[in-house]
Protein 1
Amino acid sequence: MASIILSWQAADWREWVFLLEGCDAVIQAMSPWSPSSRFQEFVDEVNQNFPTSPSPIDSPTPGIYQLLIEASRISKSLDIARLLLSGREEQLHLLRQLSIFLQNLMIAPPGPTRSEQLRTLYPLRSWMAWFPKSLVHLTKGDPAVLIALAQLNLVIMASEPLFPSVSKVYFTRMRAEKTFSIYAQLLLGGVRESGRGDETFLNSDYVEKVMREPIAVATIVQNQCNGDIDGFHR
């Protein structure tokens, strides 16, 4: 897990390839005991989709090179989430960073090579620097945290086809499944106490509105994974 997280942070494509080779060796060593591991789902996902033996040559990769949905829909979803989470600064900071990433992506799309895609992805790959600390408390079911995570998944899943050379390590199928889980948890959550002592209220109408695009993209990802559609990198 640590090696995969490090691969997200790789400064250049050569370092990325080196880290992936190490990750592949570790995953293969873990496979025999994955059925008894707490990380079985993760190991199985890696075995199915991880880019083993990545080419050391920084050559162009064919791909779709378009967002799964229109950028305007993603931007609107982020705006809705920002309005709903007014006053929750940690989560608002995450949403602002996602908006900046999306805007820059539309102004300067990534090129076809691994190095160009890693360079464009860097702000998103460095998510740990600005990821809300409250996300470590997901078990508390804070709706604001769940909404922020759903919007992060939305941006990652929707932009994944733009990065065919490097995107497999983002495990979009697992992100889709977790997005559906967040949706169900929000519908059941109602009023939850935040860490500051106030309340975040979400009725079903609010949930449907803020989760519309994350669920739409998660459904596309799920259908493409199940159908194994050509040109889509899981």
Protein 2
Amino acid sequence: MNTRPAIDESTGPIALNVGFNQDSSCFAVGLDTGFCGSCVFNSDPCELKVSRDFNAGIGATEMLGKANYIALVGGGKNPKFPINKLIIWDDAKQFAAVTLEFPTQVLQSRLSRSQILIALHNTISLYAFSSPPKKTTHPASAASGPKSSLSQAEPQARCKWLKSVPETSVSYPPTAPP
């Protein structure tokens, strides 16, 4: 018997993820129905700038500054994109500008004007932000755990993300140079 009343009985969209841009002035919210992007000006007022209803879920979002590019990964009960694909969405043109497919689930990403950093289960990959994207390093193994390896990383310089990964958890594949 359930004697507790529900805290929230709304049937509106469910937030699956929040991703801030590099200076935390804007953020995008991944919803089970799409995504919405908001800009925060000194944290007040918080106003909605963009909203896209895909009628499907977005499980991870990451903004590129105040530009029109947003990294998206499908999520929720009805994902818009496969969970093993990273989509760089060009919101000005409203289409997928870049698509990267991986053998496992994309956990998190970081964007800069020159690089795309992607965290998978036990692997981190770095790509040049170009068309088509080019892998700039060999994938590095990293500690497992959702979002643990990119929580503080910003891909503004090659391999700067190594500082955010515990030294004991990074190992290169045997074919990679030391």
Protein 3
Amino acid sequence: MACSQCFQGSLHSGTPKGREIQLHGRSTYVAEPPEDSAIKGIIVIVSNVFGWKLPNNRVLADTMAAEGSFRVYLPEFMNGSAAPARMLDDFNNVLSDMSVTGWFWKPYYLIRALIGILPVKIWASFPSTMPQVTSFVTALRGNEATNLPVGAAGYCWGGKHVLNLSFGDATRDGKPLIDVAFVAHPSYVVVPDEINPIQRPLSVAVGDKDLVFKPRDVEQTKAIFAQKDNVPSEVIIYPGARHGFAVRCNEENEKEARQGEEARKQAVNWFSVQFGKLR
């Protein structure tokens, strides 16, 4: 359920400001909007393979909460098998360092990378984790989100889960599992099988250099959405961006940093507009 691009990128600066709680049986990072802001909705982030503890993911949750006046939950959905953050350096060393010393150390970093990948592939498969995501959102609907709209944001590994949440399934009281969805560079989506059933408003952010959600998948997705007159949707393509850019861009690269920020603003704006239609 992952490729080399899923493990590449940069660790971001910034200190998470939220808190860890236990919610519906899952360890969860929660970010709140400013104290003087009314909560406009709840966002559930289904993260990339680096999981709920990666600083990038937590700072993203903080920023989305502050910019959109959302309560943002970032749960642990990977059965404790999230890839360690050190793998960002491991893969960069394997794929980027072409010096003599770099070649000497490549076998070491490659072995470390493989050790980090195995738990993800064994314990965090889609069939074993999707029921956990659905259960969490269902519980949320009946408790914290009784009177609030619910959005889901999926990144890389989590994108496939969020697309499946968008199929229109409902809770026992008839409410949709989620109201609005956003995905950035989703991994291993089966097109058209996991695009045709989508019934909830969906925004997609993807780079044209993505080796996972490939250009042909993007074009087919756009064509399917064009036939869904009753489902609001958008697909924003970021020139030159690779898989993972919305969460793991290089902050020291001006273009990458700008595109990462634009993708975040795309998500915040999408949730704000679609939530506004539900009032």
Protein 4
Amino acid sequence: MIHLSFGVEFQQPTIVAEALAQVAIHPAWQDEFFFAVDEEVKRNRYPPADLVDILDGIRADKKLSGAPHWEDDNKIRDGIMVRAKDEMVKYASQWRVDPDRLEEAIAEITNAAIYFTGGAQHPPKEIKFDFFYMHAVNSSLFFSSFIKQPWISTANKVKLLEWKGRLDLCLYASRRSPVPLLEEITNYVPKGQPSSSEWSTIFERANAFDDDGHAFIDSVEGAGLNWVRSTGFDEAWEE
């Protein structure tokens, strides 16, 4: 998705073609989940809700929040979809997008992704961002470009935003639904001097770091591993 998004935003047909080629050979096991959610929406058994409120519901549902196990190879496919698929479909169906409020939907998706990614910490451990959650944040940044494309119908723009939000909900649940600690965001103090938070300095720090492009500054500059993987599990924080 991120590969495709770069191609669309910067109007690079070759990159778009590369991305679509990747999609064509990518496993499609998530399709069953998306289509099941669409069918549940048609039944209209559960009212629409804000993404942050849905996150709270997922976390409070013990069957769903406990569905992924540490030993699962893929915690969505082997955890959520095996042990709590119906519950995940129920909560995901509550996220719906009004075609007249696309920009608001993008803002909500971005806000929710940053909320559960930034807040998923484990005091007193050093701040680390979850490698999987990070992609919910990165991919949310491109949807403003998608909704400006005249060749994408309004119905398909709505579908893109709905599926993006629903996948983020599924991703959140797959890491054991950690409590987002809002104070870790509101009270956060960046490393270094005040100037270290300026964009020009952030770019310099990112360029100087030997990384493959996954750079959440401060997380990758800390001691030990650059990332935490599956942040809701105690085992993820042992190193």
